[in-house]
Amino acid sequence: MDELIRLSNATLGQLPEHVRVPRYDRAALTPGIVHIGLGNFHRAHQAWYLHRLFDAGLCQDWAIIGAGVRPQDAAQRDKLAAQDWLTTLVELDPSGSAAEVTGSMIGYAPVQEGHAALIAQMADPAIRIVALTVTEGGYYTDPASGGFDQGHPDIQHDAVRPDTPRTAFGAMIAALKHRRAAGHGPFTGLSCDNLQGNGDILRRTLVSLAALSDPDLAAWINEACSFPNSMVDCIVPATGPKEIALAQSFGIDDRAPVTHETFRQWVIEDDFCAGRPDWDSVGATFTNDVHSYEAMKIRILNAGHQVLANAGEILGLETIADCMGDPLISALFRKVQTEEIAPHVTAVPGMTPAAYVALIETRFANPAIVDTTRRVTFDGSSRHTGFILPTLREGLAAGTSVEGLALVEALWARMCEGTREDGSLIAPNDPFWPQLNTAARAARSRPAAWLEQGQFYGDLVQAAPFADAFERWLGALWSEGCEATLDTYRQHGRIPEQA
């Protein structure tokens, strides 16, 4: 291999010709967006759309300032600062990979306790959108009630110390307080997380938190700010040595490259109180019916990840593509999707639920995407409650079968017991892992112990068609093993009656 070229503004012209680089003058960009939670997904998705806008000579006053609110975000900031905030994107196609360097990010607020620098950045009137990717579980939602978790210690801290907040939402509120006092007006809060009604949830979080310390400010935020709902879609694996080596195969020394699939989708409600970039010029969709798009994606793609990954973790399969290559797990995926999930999903323009299931099967089976089962099973307490259980409840209400979804929940419980079938240990992988692990161990002899976790399942322990099926499937997983249980579901769709 030729000598690697360290990624920076100064070396863009030295990169190989087959690497696409920014076609715009990055020095001429000015900020318009602060993005909190600047992980791989954002850099492969929202930042890419903006980068392509800049390439077209459009909207160059909308560059991104990154931000993080966790101490570990400082390390990511250091990596990106060393390469002038540039990112190498490697598109993973089975027929061959391609590399592109994006430059839509032009800075990153210092990561500080109390978030003074971030608050000052968001208070700048040039900032007209504050966007977030903080994970599905990051919005301080009570899993049982679905409402705002006012009692969380972080929320209590921000209610008492609103000028030195702990959370991203507290920092946004502090910035909005400064903007209102200075007469600078509001900004749009844009959630880019996999939550149905994510804009509505962001509004509720900000307004509810602000009301704990300043009801007048809360009312102003609710009236003046906008919170468009959005749906985002692109499979983006975590970055490790393989991904860094892949960037190096293109001759680029990038300390934080991002790999991603060939598919992207962004559907956004057109509700921006302070203007917006023309993202639709580069493929995003603005619509008043985000709900139908996000319901299809969350209930088929995001739920589909959970259908696959827990079984894969139990059987020691490393990636989602490995899970799709397993005949028993892929049969589980197809049967649950077509019989118990897709019937509760509404078609969107140009796509039926059945066609979307087929598309997701192809995307998940892409062997070039090294998307680990561990990444996908992380934070199951948020992902099962957000992606699986709403469909399960609809099935119960409609009187349709929930056998497959009950098996999916039993697989999650089996996984949370903390051992694979080969005896190896599954490392803690959820913010509620100690509680989940305790319940999973108890459920081995008394399955209801798992469903009695009311903060996740609410009253579902009382729903006999689900609870009874869950008990049968979990019992089979422990007595017969995962593969035999999956084969039983494939052949019969339920535990056969005993002779």
UniProtKB/TrEMBL annotation:
Residues covered by the Mannitol dehydrogenase C-terminal domain: 289-477
Species for this entry: Roseobacter cerasinus
Gene this protein is translated from: mtlK
InterPro entries attached to this UniProt entry: 6-PGluconate_DH-like_C_sf, 6PGD_dom2, Mannitol_DH, Mannitol_DH/Oxidoreductase, Mannitol_DH_C, Mannitol_DH_N, NAD(P)-bd_dom_sf
Domain (Mannitol dehydrogenase N-terminal) ranges: 32-280
Any Pfam family matching the protein: Mannitol_dh
Keywords for this protein: Oxidoreductase
Top-level taxonomic group: Bacteria
GO molecular function: oxidoreductase activity, acting on the CH-OH group of donors, NAD or NADP as acceptor
Record carries keyword Oxidoreductase: yes
Official protein name in the record: Mannitol 2-dehydrogenase
